[in-house]
């Protein structure tokens, strides 16, 4: 049997985002967190087929959109990534929002603002048009917070690292420059190797659980921080999946970084944090307000960014192909 998927491919400040506009599975009309669980249980082969090789690659992000369950949202989204079905993806949201508006797939209830129901909660995106194109967007992300500060972990081959655990839609190990972290100039391959070892070591030290949704737990991402270049306030490389480094500055990663800085008293409400990626693109972060998240005090972050549509893509997945579910090397 051959399944056909119509996808609109884009990139958000360099990170690829594949939006499934046709061929996605029909799911019951439920809150999107429940639809996400059903997708993971019954349809995860679609994620791997579209994200992994030979149809994707190690740094793919993607999204499938549905009618919303919430009355205050325009659309619901299930994020499909090389690393799984994430609760939230910043680059994915920026790419998806640009595609939905520019391609006329959704008519927002409030012109200039798109409200998305994500598994992590409601996310609003404001957008500015340049003719019939989306020039830029600002993503108002889910409440983010510093979960644990100064967590010491021994990483094989590297030694002791002290990291902060912060949430920005996913849990992150936030690693600032220190004796055993020389900075981003060590290169992507070394960062990937170090990230894999750090994640494994952290699993024996801490298992964070979101205070308002126990389905969101565990440290699966890392953001490696370094000194700024040019007009940026900092640089960061976001690690996710098995061996992916985000080409953008990372939406949930930049949010987690701002939450970490705020939690440590280094970034005030109204403060700005411009985060630069490995390829030089920038997310313009801002702390919009202070919020309570369970017993934690966190922030509502926003990110200014842009995305571009790069093509329409009809993808065939044929079960006669022994690699129809996709594959990863290593």
Automatic annotation (TrEMBL):
Tree of life domain: Bacteria
Keyword set, alphabetical order: Isomerase
EC nos: 5.1.1.8
One matching Pfam family: Pro_racemase
SUPFAM superfamilies in UniProt: Diaminopimelate epimerase-like
Listed GO MF terms: 4-hydroxyproline epimerase activity
Keyword Iron belongs to the record: no
InterPro entries to which the protein is assigned, alphabetical: Pro_racemase_fam
Family: Belongs to the proline racemase family.
Protein name: 4-hydroxyproline epimerase
Source species: Paracoccus fontiphilus
Classification lineage: Bacteria, Pseudomonadati, Pseudomonadota, Alphaproteobacteria, Rhodobacterales
């Amino acid at each position: 049997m051959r399944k056909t998927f119509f996808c609109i491919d884009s990139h958000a400040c360099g990170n690829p985002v594949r939006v499934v506009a046709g061929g996605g599975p029909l799911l019951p009309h439920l809150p999107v967190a429940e639809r996400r669980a059903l997708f993971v249980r019954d349809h995860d082969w679609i994620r791997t087929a579209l994200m992994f090789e030979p149809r994707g690659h190690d740094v793919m992000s993607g999204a499938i959109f549905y009618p919303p369950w919430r009355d205050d949202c325009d659309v619901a989204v299930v994020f499909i990534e090389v690393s799984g079905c994430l609760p939230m993806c910043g680059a994915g949201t920026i790419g998806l929002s640009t595609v939905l508006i520019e391609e006329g797939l959704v008519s927002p209830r409030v012109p200039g603002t798109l409200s998305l129901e994500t598994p992590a909660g409601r996310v609003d995106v404001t957008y500015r048009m340049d003719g019939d194109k989306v020039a830029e967007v600002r993503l108002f992300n889910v409440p983010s917070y510093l979960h644990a500060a100064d967590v010491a972990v021994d990483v094989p081959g590297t030694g002791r690292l002290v990291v902060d655990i912060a949430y920005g839609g996913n849990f992150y190990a936030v690693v600032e420059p220190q004796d055993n972290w020389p900075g981003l100039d060590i290169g992507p391959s070394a960062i990937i190797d170090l990230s894999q070892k750090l994640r494994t070591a952290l699993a024996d030290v801490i298992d964070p659980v979101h205070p308002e949704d126990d389905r969101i737990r565990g440290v699966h991402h890392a953001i490696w921080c370094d000194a700024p270049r040019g007009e940026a306030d900092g640089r960061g490389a976001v690690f996710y999946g098995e061996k992916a480094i985000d080409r953008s500055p990372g939406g949930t990663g930049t949010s987690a970084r701002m939450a970490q800085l705020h939690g440590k008293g280094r970034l005030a409400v109204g403060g700005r944090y411009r985060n630069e990626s490995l390829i030089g693109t920038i997310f313009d972060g801002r702390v919009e307000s202070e919020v309570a998240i369970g017993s934690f005090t966190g922030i509502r972050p926003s990110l200014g960014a842009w995305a571009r549509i790069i093509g329409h893509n009809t993808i065939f997945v044929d079960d006669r192909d022994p690699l129809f579910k996709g594959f990863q090397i290593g």
